[in-house]
Prior knowledge:
The structure holds two protein chains of two kinds. Chain A is mostly helical.
Amino acid sequence: MKLNGESVAKGVLSLVAFSALASLLLIAVFIFKEGFPFMLKVGVNDFLFSSTWNPQAGQYGIYPMIVASLYVTFGAMLIGAPLGIAGAIFMNEFLPRSVMRIIKPTIELLAGIPSVVFGFLGVMVLAPFIRAHLGGPGLSVLAASIILGVMVLPTVISISTDAIGAVPNSYREGALALGATRWQSVYMVTIKAARSGIIASVILAMGRALGETMAVIMVAGNTVKIPHAVTDPVRTLTANIALEMSNATGMAREALFATGVVLFVVIMILNAIAMSAIKGAGGRK
Amino acid sequence: MRNLSMGVCGVVLLAAIVCGVGCGKPRENITMAGSTAFQPFAEKLADQYMTTHPDVTITIQGGGSALGIQAALSGAAQVGMADLVTLPPEAASLKNMVVARDGIAVVLNPANAVAALTLEQVRNIFCGKIKNWKEVGGADHAIAVISREAGSGTRTSFEQIVGGITLTSDALIQDSNGTIRETVANDAYAIGYLSHGLVNEKIKPVTVDGFACTEQTIVGNQYKLVRPVFLVYKASVSPACSAFLEYLLSAEAQEIVHQKGLIRAK
């Protein structure tokens, strides 16, 4: 009787586990089925590398959006990664445990703030500030990068903190015993030992920044044009899909699925790079 | 024993639910889908109609004008809502009626000194040929053009009425009337356009060819940026549905349309 129950539970659980996998597979298959034939029809080269997006006139070039997605993601990492890693180091190495027990959950709470709230802040505070002090329309690469950089902070901080916290104390004691200052032990020993975890945190954050839609639509300006300055407005791949989905029919709709295919591939490539980076970092430890 | 009585209870409950839905008077379901600009008005009208006709259930969905026509064609909705100047060719097989008219106001930030534009100037600004406010009598500052996403009913109508617009690639794109309003309200040098019913004190509508976007100028055919709100439906709609469509053109329904900021169909 007992054995029977156990095997039933096992069966149910594996079914659940596989259904998660299956839905992922179905999503991938569906996006490719809807989007890939379109890419072949328009020409992969034209679709990926021409710069005019005008679905009504049959022009489907997403090159400016690919560039925009990469710029905005890179900008977000430029802001989020150093701040996040520095925050994690400070919390682990320089703050008393008791204070950290309060601060860490508070930072993790940040992750629960809906992206539309960040977007709203961006529109109401950040964009007017950029417009007044740096020129341009305010809604820009810079605004999107800053908002995304702040949005990914909890991801970077909490995973980096865990990685740094997992470095055995004997490493630090060893460094200090050899005459290293506190900063030298952090810089030369702790960070190196926690490297793979820190890289993982940045990669995860990058995935989040690349996939974020709502906040980006609100603050990036959504202009389909290759930006020449950080104050220029841009449209990212995700924003393109969300903006035009509701009105798109026929070819225009297929074009959005094809945009999804590109996004999918870009994320896959990023993840692959991440995996190998983590492996490399782990190997050299 | 306990299990048995619970089972009986369950069966009785189930029967009651089924009966509640099935045995009563047959309810008529009407679904309307399409234009997000007309959606809030349609909801108001549907609520009003359902209080006097309790046997009819009306569901209003958004999705955009293009989707409204698609839904009416496929039968996903009995009635499609489309706020376009002219219906696209695929709607030729559907019957249509105009339920209201809506002006499109060209709006600026209240801090902008410009108060009047010609249709020609509006066209050139949105095409990117006029790039600076001083060319139309304003301050020496670049114009921030704000438009809607491709496929939007408001944008399609706007570009069709103004004519000859190839939107400048510098234009910022916002995805609703509301965000257009916020963006223009926040940027002293922005220009945008939105449904006349949604203009408020945070933005300033300009006159086009000398006429302000008001009810009188729209009714008098003087203000040019006006689009009809179409309802499209199959010739074979249910009697309950055609009764509702008739109601929409009644004096009572048109009064609601009018009070909420749209222009009567006739």
